[in-house]
From TrEMBL:
Cited PANTHER family: CYCLIC DI-GMP PHOSPHODIESTERASE PA4108, CYCLIC DI-GMP PHOSPHODIESTERASE PA4108-RELATED
Highest taxon, organism lineage: Bacteria
Keyword vocabulary terms for this entry: Hydrolase
Name of the protein in question: HD-GYP domain-containing protein
Keyword Hydrolase among UniProt keywords: yes
InterPro entries, per the entry: DUF3391 (IPR021812), HD/PDEase_dom (IPR003607), HD_GYP_dom (IPR037522), HDIG_dom (IPR006675)
Ranges where the HD-GYP domain occurs: 129-325
Top-level class of the enzyme under EC nomenclature: hydrolase
SMART domains for the chain: HDc
SUPFAM superfamilies for this protein: HD-domain/PDEase-like (SSF109604)
Record-linked Pfam families: DUF3391, HD_5
EC nos: 3.1.4.-
Keyword check for Translocase: no
Length: 407
């Protein structure tokens, strides 16, 4: 926010309120819906329209004082949107469209129909664009999981996480599209596994496990029979359960024969599988999953890819819940690249695990809690452990709202 000059105050569009008088838009786009610069904001829709065309506006302070009471100043309670709020809905729409497409593709495969390779490639291309534009939002969306849609959602998440890791490894646009396609299609062979085995709530019998493991062979065959499929995706579908030491399946291949994309997808596939709820097991917290990946470095996973994956998503990635040193519960909404142990957190529950009015807490500011002790992260927890439904947060528009800032 800028200081007042001659009765005019320059503010960011996310500080706009109903009743304000905008005297001028800063660098509006050519398709501005407003015929005149002076605008009295009468509804939240007016605010959204302004936010869509510029970043800053100029407020008529005299009008504001006369007609609308207090104006925002440096002494009023600070309020902010989340860093990705402005682009969240558009990015989420791309994520949703691709998720719906992979469900359609899997249904086609299950019923023996041909699927549209070109549609899959187009969807992956859009995901690559959104990962490059809004990686934080895409990472957050991979954390909103639905056990009932595990296979399709897992494929979508592996696609996004593969692109994110490829970005960290400085892949070209062409290779980002290829690895995204590999990630999206790596588990299509599961559509040929009988549902009573695929969705069995308990442990699989040995013969059932043998059938389940054949999904790699089924996936290879499905992709080989489709036209214009990237050949590397066939290898990934067939080999993503192989290990560097030759202890995986179905062929016991070792690191010398596994492709780069296979090694990469194996890392993110394992991470998302470990952290997701499935019919037969509960997902594990983020840090525990990273520990499993680190333990498998060199024997099961390519060490550099594990290291770069951790660099990519961080110790506290968006969408994870944490219990703070105060006992309060918060949702990580922004990483701190300068200090990865001090992210921005949306406080959502008090120390008794009761819902509160959400506030943004920036751990890098070293703010003290109610007892006078400095805030810190105690542990990463699962949403289910504190009754939090991330899907409902998404549906309720929590990621695009404005929040008060702690301290």
């Amino acid at each position: 926010m800028a200081d007042k000059e001659d009765g005019i105050l320059r503010i960011h569009v996310y500080e706009l309120r109903v009743g304000m008088c905008v005297s001028r838009l800063e660098a509006p786009t050519a398709d501005s819906p407003f015929l005149l610069d002076r605008i009295v904001i009468e509804s939240h829709a007016d605010i959204q329209a302004i936010q869509a065309i510029c970043d800053y506006v100029y407020i008529d302070v005299k009008y504001q004082k006369s007609f609308s009471g207090a104006i925002p100043t440096r002494n009023t309670e600070a309020r902010k949107h989340l860093s990705f709020a402005r682009s969240f809905n558009q990015t989420a729409n791309t994520f949703q469209r691709t998720g719906n497409l992979i469900k359609t593709v899997m249904d086609d495969i299950r019923f023996g129909n041909q699927f549209s390779v070109s549609a899959v490639k187009q969807a992956v291309s859009e995901c690559v664009d959104k990962v490059l534009e809004n990686p934080d939002t895409m990472l957050l969306l991979t954390q909103i999981k639905d056990q009932d849609q595990y296979t399709a959602q897992h494929s979508m998440n592996v696609c996004i996480l593969s692109i994110l890791l490829g970005r960290e490894l400085n892949f070209s646009m062409e290779d980002l599209n290829k690895v995204g396609f590999c990630g999206l299609m790596h588990d299509v062979g599961k559509m040929k596994v009988p549902l009573e085995i695929l969705n069995k709530p308990g442990s699989l019998e040995d013969y059932e496990m043998d059938i389940m493991r054949k999904h790699t062979l089924y996936g290879r065959n499905v992709l080989m029979s489709a036209r214009n499929v990237y050949p590397g995706a066939v290898d990934v579908a067939y080999d993503h359960h192989e290990h560097l030491a030759g202890t995986g399946y179905p062929r016991g291949l070792n690191k010398t024969t596994l492709s780069i994309f296979t090694k990469l997808v194996a890392v993110v596939d394992t991470y998302d599988a470990i952290t997701s709820d499935r019919v037969y097991q509960r997902g594990k917290p983020h840090l525990m999953a990273l520990g499993i990946l680190v333990k498998g470095m060199g024997q099961q996973f390519e060490a550099n890819y594990v290291t770069q994956f951790i660099n990519c998503i961080g110790f506290y990635p968006q969408g994870n819940l944490v219990e703070l040193s105060s006992g309060e519960i918060g949702l990580i909404v922004e990483q701190n690249k300068a200090d990865r142990l001090k992210p921005k957190i949306l406080l959502i529950q008090d120390s008794n695990k009761n819902p509160i009015e959400e506030k943004i807490l920036d751990l890098s500011l070293n703010i003290a809690d109610a007892s006078g002790k400095r805030y810190g992260v105690k542990q990463v927890i699962r949403p289910q452990d504190c009754g939090v439904d991330l899907a409902k947060y998404y549906q309720d528009g929590k990621f695009t709202k404005e929040y008060a800032v702690v301290g």
